[in-house]
Write a structure and sequence with these properties.
Low-confidence stretches of chain B: none
Oligomer: heterodimer
Radius of gyration of chain A: 13 Å
Largest interface: A-B, 23 and 20 residues
Mean pLDDT of chain A: 93
Structural class of chain A: mainly beta
Shape of chain B: globular
Number of strands of chain A: 11
Number of helices of chain A: 0
Helix content of chain A: under 10%
Radius of gyration of chain B: 13 Å
Distance between the termini of chain A: 36 Å
Low-confidence stretches of chain A: none
Strand content of chain A: over 45%
Structural class of chain B: mainly beta
Mean pLDDT of chain B: 91
Distance between the termini of chain B: 41 Å
């Protein structure tokens, strides 16, 4: 398996523009997570899905952020309009949803810079 | 709420042992994890321990868990320059909750 795939790897945009980050989880995994990593706040959970349904979106910063999972193999995280404080590395992770350890596997991340 | 804390930086010499420490507050933690992040890369799972265990060994890695003190440590034996990275401690709370709470990460620098 190719692991969790994220695109783009790097995104530079101007304040006010719409940004869409994409994620393809590992095939067969039931859970998908979006995290944000910054120097100031470390790794924060934004939202996670189970079987394409959002379970916990309490970490989504504000209404400018939205996430969707239209099918089991694809998810998007959209920021509209983007602001400089959204600059961060955004990670997607997936897990099988099995009882027990249920390890999360991370993608390589998307480094977002909002000018 | 849940909180996970780690020291920010550790420097060791090649060949020495490294010990990275972590404390957490959630007494209902079920699993605790150690992840490694190399520059420009995502997080890679190193090892995990179930909360009813007090030690787990995996090659050069030893995880110690003191559940009473809510203290977790990762020992890397014979540390190599390739071990230089940021190490994150993470915990998963109640069994039904899938999300992880991460510490701030410890940057390990291995000097030749």
């Amino acid at each position: 398996d190719a692991g969790v795939i994220q695109s783009p790897r790097h995104e530079v945009t101007e304040m006010g523009q719409e940004v869409t980050l994409r994620c393809k989880p590992i095939s067969g995994h039931d859970y998908l997570f979006w995290y944000r990593q910054t120097m100031m706040r470390g790794l924060e959970l934004l939202i996670y899905f189970n079987n394409n349904v959002p379970i916990d979106d309490s970490g989504m910063p504000e209404d400018r952020f939205s996430a969707k999972m239209p099918n089991a193999s694809f998810s998007t995280l959209k920021i509209q309009p983007s602001e400089p404080r959204d600059s961060a590395v955004y990670f997607c992770a997936s897990s099988p949803g099995q009882a027990g350890t249920d390890t999360q596997y991370f993608g390589p991340g998307t480094r977002l810079t909002v000018l | 709420g849940e909180d996970v804390e780690q020291s920010l930086f550790l420097s060791v010499r090649e060949g020495d042992s490294s010990v990275i420490n972590c404390t957490y507050t959630d007494s209902s933690s079920t699993y605790l994890y150690w992840y490694k992040q190399e520059p420009g890369a995502g997080l890679q799972l190193l090892t995990y321990i179930f909360s009813n265990m007090d030690m787990k060994q995996d090659q050069r890695l030893t995880v110690l868990l003191n559940k009473k003190d809510k203290h977790l440590s990762l020992r890397i034996a014979d540390t190599q320059t390739g071990d230089s990275a940021i190490y994150f401690c993470a915990e998963r709370g109640q069994p039904g909750r899938r999300a992880l709470t991460f510490g701030s990460g410890t940057r390990l620098q291995v000097q030749p």
